[in-house]
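Lab meeting, item 3. Inverse folding demo.
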């Protein structure tokens, strides 16, 4: 074997150009597959980076839940039956789990904490936060890299406020300063001591591949960090609300205990605690409020699920899964083309090695020995391609959707997969040439009169070429379909003018602003920003249009009869906006009027503007202006409809504009709105001026999530852009490989038929006839491959039909354009050998014969 390796290496070095072409081709095919497998590895195989992750279980529930009056869901999955599967529980329920647990070593609870305003040495910035029970790190088996993690003693309302920070935040914010332990920072104005830095490998338990939260706080610090709303003079912390479901719960099972036993232990506890929580909530209401509350008739209790927790709390996004499935198919086709192309190159090279093979056979080498030698050379080629393919795969991850490409690891599984692909690829493209080459008759080859090997090589080579052409057509057609889809989505009328808009957010509530002060600050910002040179106007909304966020509420129309005790299922999307929102965003009003500054007041009569979709759906009988609506039967007269606006896309470019209503921001809870500034020129050139204006109002108020409205629109087509880019890139690669394959096959054919062509020319054949005959032979192969490719397109189009927009799945235009592009590339590739054939000198050809 070592002798074979040394000999194979010498042979490859002897043909450096040929070797380079093969290795680069293999690197592209293997590298693309490596990149996609790294994504699959991250989504489906990688475990959370904790001690013994297989012993973890996650608690979730399935089915309709009427026991919660409020909830914060961080990821909703679907059961096999189509029911919602949710991940959050109330804090009193977690405490009950702890008390009644008999099957787990310990149970933890945690929750994403959103963003906090962190001030260090007088410099403020936003950081991602996480809250967890004191046993969080103990259950997971995580120790601090520097300092210590917090424990149960720190998770106490009377304990000094402490926190741990991620390695990533330690490096970016503190410059890897080891004296950070013991440093006091202000988190939402709360003085907190940093007690430790977490290991770089620990990214949390949400998902195996994710960015870690910057700061993790003990759970009992949550009411201080995220100030709860004050209701009737009492701060309603989520820790004391039995019907507020917001905590994720995981546990570590005892040795020998199954998930079914854990579920049997806690299923009854879960349902009883859920019912008791709602009863406690209703008991706290006044008699009048209880009699009119829609919550009193709730009966549906969901069912507890205990599932493996090795892969974290969240399920994989179906969008990401679908993207990776399709990309997997694409890169597999590319690798198949590469194998066919390399096999053709090996066949061409093998023809020139017939004498060598025959001499080896004549001196006693067995056919098996020679096949092994050639397979070793093929595997050596594949190994070189695989080594380079690792680098290609590393950079190729950037093609993956979202942040998955940046975070997908190149771990031992990826290297093992690449090794398997290298071996399989080496065998696939090497076995046929090896068998063909060693099938030669010794005497005939030595006399150089046998055409059998050459003929069989020609048939196999042409067959491989047909395969390449067919797959190339599939990929080029896919590129056409997704490029047209992307173009159609970008051409969608969004219902407003997205040009020259810069968007950003500030969150004054993190600096201790109450609702009234926040509203005054936002109004001040709008006024100041609108007066800047080059700025036409500024406005705000929550959520922003096409931002990816959705805010829905029920809708009840005054004067209509609704069945008592039955929850109304009609819903309407809601935006909290400034009165000038329609003017700034350039959304025309179709009927009635817009919102006024006088109505942007908590004490003013409540009003709303609805869009055309809402008018059509909820007021089919006539003009809705002057009608009243609300979010329940009791409040159905709360809002007066004062106008109807044009439909504007809310969240999706594909879907029709949903029923939407707009309300003044001072008549509703604002949350953290998006501020939109319309400029006269490039909006990004105004960012520095806007930041200085914010600092002049409040220097401790960070400006975050800066983007343009056009960028927001582009984010709505991220998946389509990924597919279009991948299909175009790999389709172009497939075309190049097919062209190289066609050129190689026809060059070999011309070389083999040189004497025949010379005789034909000597007997009077015209050079144009030779050129035409050679071109026809090439184009016949292309036509056969194209026909097979079109059949594959029709058979597989249903797999991508749901991803297309404005394009039929068997789009004749895309297929015709792909075929035309393929024909042009094939004609150019075939013309060069055909032209060379037509210029053969008859005397030289006859002398060679």
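The presenter then showed the designed sequence:
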């Amino acid at each position: 074997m070592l002798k074979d390796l040394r000999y194979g290496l010498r042979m490859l070095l002897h043909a450096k150009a040929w070797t380079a072409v093969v290795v680069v081709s293999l690197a592209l095919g293997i590298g693309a597959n490596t990149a996609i497998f790294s994504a699959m590895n991250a989504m489906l195989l990688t475990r959370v980076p904790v001690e013994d992750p297989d012993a973890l279980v996650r608690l979730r529930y399935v089915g309709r839940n009427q026991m919660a009056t409020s909830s914060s869901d961080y990821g909703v999955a679907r059961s096999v039956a189509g029911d919602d599967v949710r991940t959050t529980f109330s804090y009193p329920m977690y405490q009950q789990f702890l008390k009644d647990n008999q099957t787990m070593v310990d149970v933890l609870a945690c929750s994403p904490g959103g963003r906090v305003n962190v001030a260090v040495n007088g410099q403020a910035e936003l950081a991602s936060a996480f809250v967890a029970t004191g046993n969080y790190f103990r259950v997971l088996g995580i120790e601090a890299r520097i300092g210590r993690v917090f424990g149960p003693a720190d998770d106490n309302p009377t304990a000094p406020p402490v926190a741990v920070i991620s390695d990533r935040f330690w490096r970016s914010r503190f410059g890897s300063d080891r004296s950070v332990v013991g440093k006091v920072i202000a988190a939402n104005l709360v003085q907190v001591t940093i007690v430790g830095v977490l290991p770089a490998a620990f990214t949390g338990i949400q998902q195996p591949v994710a960015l870690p939260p910057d700061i993790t706080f003990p759970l009992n610090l949550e009411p201080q960090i995220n100030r709860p709303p004050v209701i009737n003079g009492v701060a309603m912390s989520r820790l004391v609300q039995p019907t507020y479901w917001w905590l994720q719960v995981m546990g570590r099972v005892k040795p020998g205990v199954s998930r079914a036993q854990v579920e049997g232990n806690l299923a009854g506890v879960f349902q009883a605690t859920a019912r008791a929580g709602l009863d406690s909530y209703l008991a706290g209401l006044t008699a009048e409020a209880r009699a009119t509350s829609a919550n009193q008739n709730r009966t549906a209790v969901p069912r507890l699920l205990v599932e493996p927790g090795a892969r974290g709390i969240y399920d994989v996004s179906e969008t990401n899964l679908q993207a990776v499935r399709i990309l997997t198919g694409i890169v597999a086709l590319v690798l198949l083309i590469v194998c066919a192309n390399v096999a053709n190159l090996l066949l061409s090279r093998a023809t020139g090695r017939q004498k060598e093979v025959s001499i080896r056979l004549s001196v006693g080498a067995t056919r098996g020995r020679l096949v092994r030698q050639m397979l070793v050379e093929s595997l050596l080629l594949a190994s070189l391609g695989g080594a380079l393919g690792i680098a290609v795969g590393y950079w190729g991850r950037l093609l993956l959707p979202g942040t998955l490409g940046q975070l997908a690891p190149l771990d031992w599984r990826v290297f093992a997969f690449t090794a398997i692909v290298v071996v399989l690829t080496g065998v696939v493209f090497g076995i046929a040439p090896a068998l063909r080459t060693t099938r030669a008759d010794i005497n005939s080859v030595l006399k150089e009169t046998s055409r059998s090997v050459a003929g069989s090589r020609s048939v196999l080579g042409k067959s491989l070429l047909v395969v390449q052409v067919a797959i190339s057509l599939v990929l080029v057609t896919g590129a056409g379909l997704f490029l047209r889809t992307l173009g159609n989505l970008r051409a969608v009328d969004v219902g407003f003018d997205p040009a020259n808009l810069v968007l950003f957010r500030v969150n004054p509530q993190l600096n201790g602003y109450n609702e009234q002060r926040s509203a005054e600050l936002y109004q001040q910002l709008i006024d100041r920003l609108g007066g800047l040179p080059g700025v036409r106007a500024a406005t705000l909304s929550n959520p922003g249009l096409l931002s990816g966020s959705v805010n829905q509420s029920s809708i009840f129309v005054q004067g209509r009869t609704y069945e008592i005790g039955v929850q109304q299922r009609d819903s309407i999307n809601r935006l909290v906006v400034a009165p000038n929102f329609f003017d700034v965003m350039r959304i025309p009003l179709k009927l009635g009027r817009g919102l006024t500054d006088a109505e942007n007041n908590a004490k003013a009569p409540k009003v709303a503007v609805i869009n055309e979709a809402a008018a059509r759906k909820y007021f089919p009988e006539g003009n809705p202006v002057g009608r009243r609506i609300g979010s329940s039967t009791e409040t159905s007269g709360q809002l007066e409809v004062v106008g109807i606006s044009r439909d504007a896309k809310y969240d999706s470019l594909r879907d029709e504009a949903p029923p939407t209503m707009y309300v003044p921001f001072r008549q509703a809870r604002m949350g953290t709105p998006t501020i939109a500034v319309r400029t006269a020129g490039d909006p990004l050139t105004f960012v520095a001026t806007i930041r200085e204006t914010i600092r002049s109002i409040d220097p401790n108020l960070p400006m975050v999530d800066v983007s343009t409205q056009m960028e927001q629109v582009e984010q709505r087509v991220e998946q389509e852009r990924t597919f279009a880019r991948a299909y175009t890139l790999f389709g172009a690669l497939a075309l190049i490989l097919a062209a190289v394959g066609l050129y190689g096959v026809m060059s070999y054919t011309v070389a083999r038929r040189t004497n025949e062509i010379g005789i034909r020319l000597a007997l009077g054949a015209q050079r144009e006839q030779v050129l035409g005959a050679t071109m026809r032979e090439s184009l016949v192969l292309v036509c056969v491959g194209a026909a097979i490719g079109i059949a594959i397109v029709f058979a597989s189009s249903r797999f991508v039909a749901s991803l297309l927009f404005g394009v039929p799945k068997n789009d004749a235009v895309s297929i015709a354009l792909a075929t035309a592009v393929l024909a042009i590339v094939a004609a150019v590739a075939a013309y060069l050998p055909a032209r060379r054939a037509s210029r053969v000198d008859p005397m030289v050809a006859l002398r060679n014969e």
